[in-house]
Amino acid sequence: MLIKFRLANHRSIRDEQELSLVATEFNEGTARQSGLRHKGRELSVVPVAGVFGANASGKSNLISGLRFMRDAVRESFADWAKAPETVPREPFKLDPACREETSLFEVDLVLGDEPVRYTYGFELSDERVEAEWLHAYPHGRRSVWFDREAARPQEEGGEFVFRGSGFRGRRDDLVALTRPNALFLSVGAALNDPQLSAVYAWFVKSLYRVEPEPRLTNFLLARAEQDAAYRRRIGGLLAAADLGVTGIDVEAKSGEVRLLHRSTAGRDVPLDFHTEESLGTHAWFTFLGLLLTTLDEGSLLVVDELDASLHPTLAAEVVRILQDPAANPRGAQLIFTTHDATLLGNAVLDRPLGRDQVWLTLKKRSGETELYSLTEAKPRKEENLERGYLRGRYGGVPRVTAGELAREFSVLEGS
Questions:
Q1: Partner residues linked to 134 by β-bridges
Q2: Entry pTM
Q3: What mean pLDDT, rounded, does the chain reach?
């Protein structure tokens, strides 16, 4: 379970920004218990967070930062070895000074059947890992598994500091195998350290991102071919979405998956998935596949531009699935970006998102992205969030007056 994600100096995100899934006093019943206590109270976490904002305001860069952190954890041990004196980061480009500053990435997680909070993060320069840390909080008390700082002088104990007995792994062996541009967490997982592998596994097995890649769709098609129970589940969801699909069939000779459609004669007719189904059906099929995996595993699904894949009605239903404890018993989570203001509630869709589940991005005139929660505006429970957002009450919308672009086109055409 993700509690918080913090980052700085990545693409348009210059100064430190934080996305928090911790429920607030504005929560309207969507929060889940985390199994942790904070300041004497049970810590609750929301299952869904939606990020709204104008074009080019940095919504996608927030998702990109989470993806970069995942890829760094997965790839730094092996792939970054191909260029051992470089780190493939993307610092803020509109200020040359940011090239000399580190890029920061950090997550707060809750892991395990007996929930334990972990804080893992790192800072990168163009050449190396400048800092890295992993702290666990068993019984609510911090245990420093390791702190790494490249600038730490040797007389202070070297680059790595291990405090206490929290981390029980082969410290000297792992340190010796950690290159300057490799993450210690990646090295530990590659060498099957059980403690580090448990944290590493969250990035590899519990963090999914919807990406428009044919190989992902083909992987899900292969699963539908081989797994009859999965085929029934995804077929039922496709049918419920009113796409004209009644189920899924596997062609006996070729093994190809075909979606069934009801004909005018009342019979089910199979259509070839690749050549006869719409791009919208492809998108919903792929999304559903990852959604089912996320629900089954209690993992995190990240979607950039949810409205590009799903009709607003379907998007609202996806949010409601994640919000429903009966449909989401393992505590899966969803983070998405969107322009679709109807998810803030209207006469047709009600309001799928609670006030503390809405985040906004604002592009400053300097080109930097600012991320902030809707709750900073202290909206009332009965407030029309969609109307308030579109009127600019909370920020996060383009600074364009009505007719401004049309007048600009008129001037250009007349010149």
A1: 120, 146
A2: 0.92
A3: 90
